[in-house]
Every structure is written in C-alpha cells, then in structure tokens.
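Appendix B. Raw example, untouched.
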Amino acid sequence: MNDQHIAPSSLRPVRGAARCAVATLALAGAAWAARALWQIRLAMSGMPASGPPDQGDGRHRPLTALENAYHVVSALGDVATALCAIAFLAWLLRVRDNARALSGQPPRYAWPWVYAGWIVPVLNLWVPRGIVADVHRASAPGERLPCAVNWWWGLWVAGMLSGVGLMYTDSTDSVIARAYEDVQLLLAADAALVGAALAGVFVVRALTATQIRTVETAPGASADRR
C-alpha cells in the first residue's frame, strides 16, 4: 500500500453512503419477502374458475382483490429495488475511489464497469463481485475477503439465473399465473434474493469498517471521515 502520498481531499466519506446502502438493502429484502408472501397467498387461494389474468390474444379478465394487491406489492418492490441499486452503487463508487487512493494503483476494472458489470451478459456473473473484492484487497492488503461477499454473490447469481427472480421479464399477470401453477420456483428465487440482500448488508458493513480503519490510520489522512 502506498502510505506516503494520501491526500485527505482524495478520500471520500463513506459512513453516510454505507448507512443508505444498508437501509435500502434491508428495504429491498423486505420487499421481496412481501412478494413471496403474496405469491403464497395466491397459490393457496387457487386460480379462479375464469383462468389466469392474461387470457391470451390480448384479452385480460378483471383482477381479483388479491391479484390487485399483488400488483401494488410488486410495484412497490420495484421501487425499493431501484432505490437499493442507486444507494449500493453510490456506496461502491465511494469505497472504490478510496481504495484507489489508498493503494496508489488503478482498479482492475475501469469505472464504467461499476454500472455495466451488472447488465452485460456473462460478465455480470463475476465482474461486480470482482469489483467488491478488489476494493477490499486494495483497502486491506493481506486480509482475508469477508465470507459475506461469497454468500452475497452466490445468492444473487442464484436468484438471477433462476429466470423467475430479479431478472424475470414476464408481466406481473404472468407471474400471478405462475404463482397459481408452480409457486415453488418463484419462492426459491425470492428466497435467494432476500438472502442476497441480507448478506449484502454484511458486505457493506464489513468493507466500510475495514476501509474506515485503514483510512483513519493512514499517514496524511483525515481522522474524521464521516
């Protein structure tokens, strides 16, 4: 680590960003748990005699009260997930910038990958985890990567590859039909994403604590990085 030329102005405050990331991760986890609860309620109620909401050929029957409620829960979950993504990326950019200042070395992945790494097919299977691992490696050389990172990423990928979790492209009405017919796969994906959100809380807390400790003991760094 390059300890000799760390300018305080180059080290960005991370505590506030970490708190926002933790709060929105918890919110997103709760939102996906709520989706799972409503999917269970749909499965238990059984499909109405009139069939699924999407009748095919552009025809849709009127929704039941439970189905309408699921639409609301799903929409709120989308908002919570978007807020979580914004807060998490804001935190990740800050700790990444600090890691670069502390190590004196450029990150393995250029800054566009902080965003593109999540959406480029195939590369999204490892790039985001690689960015997080690089932050930890640069912030605390020689320290073991927190096990929460692997739990977080493994659960995220499981939910993403399930095809019915965070990355499903079906309409909400189609998801409702799935809940009536085969809720188990939906619940498995929801459980993986709830677990990923909870593990993500530990990732943010662990990496933030490690970096703050390193920053506060680094020569030339400000002792009060709020």
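End of appendix B.
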